[in-house]
Write a structure and sequence with these properties.
- The chain has helices at residues 2-37, 55-64; strands at 46-48, 69-76, 81-87, 94-99, 104-105.
- The termini are far apart.
- A five-stranded antiparallel sheet has the order 1-2-3-4-5, covered by helices on one side.
- By secondary structure, it is an alpha+beta fold.
- The model is unreliable at 34-40 (pLDDT under 50).
- It has two helices and five strands.
- It has two domains: 1-39; 46-105, Nuclear Transport Factor 2, Chain: A (Roll), CATH 3.10.450.
Length: 109
């Protein structure tokens, strides 16, 4: 009888130890995925001050994207295009592309 109880106790302990090891492995995988998602993308754009944007760009944002503010700006000298991150109250940030003369550009997919 003693051997039966000890066998059941050992089997239960082994079962819980295996489940704990599996849970620890999954946690490590999740942490690795978060790191991969946060890696910066090199797209040829370099950050610029929003105050340094051409007047045509700020006027186009005010006219076409009323209520939006430019939170980030980048410039691609090769393509001569500005990349703007626009924010409006109660909405998700929007990325928009525009030329220096205020013409909106649709990104190629």
């Amino acid at each position: 009888m003693k051997k039966l109880i000890m066998s059941v106790a050992a089997a239960t302990a082994l079962l819980f130890a295996t489940q704990t090891a599996s849970a620890q492995e999954k946690t490590e995988e999740v942490a690795m995925n978060k790191t991969e998602v946060q890696a910066p993308v090199q797209d040829g754009f370099e950050a610029v001050e929003t105050s340094a944007l051409p007047e045509a760009v700020t006027e186009a944002v005010a006219a076409d994207k009323a209520g939006s503010a430019i939170s980030e700006a980048s410039f691609n000298a090769e393509k001569e295009i500005y990349k703007l991150v626009l924010t409006a109250e109660g909405t998700e940030p929007e990325t928009a592309y525009i030329t220096a003369d205020g013409t909106w550009v649709k990104p190629k997919k």
